C-alpha cells in the first residue's frame, strides 16, 4: 500500500489538530471562569 505513509501522516495531523482544539477550548473555559471570579 503506497498510501499508508500518507494515511499515517494525515492521521497524525488530524490528531494534533483535535488536541490543539481541545486544549484551546479548555483554556478559554478556564479563562472565562477566572474572569468571572475576578469580577464577582
Automatic annotation (TrEMBL):
Compartments it resides in: Membrane
One GO cellular component term: membrane
Keywords of this entry: Ion transport, Membrane, Transmembrane, Transmembrane helix, Transport
Domain of life: Eukaryota
GO biological process, alphabetically ordered: monoatomic ion transport; regulation of monoatomic ion transport
Ranges that cross the membrane: 6-27
Membrane topology summary: Single-pass membrane protein
Molecular function GO labels: ion channel regulator activity
Similarity comment: Belongs to the FXYD family.
Name listed for the protein in its UniProt record: FXYD domain-containing ion transport regulator
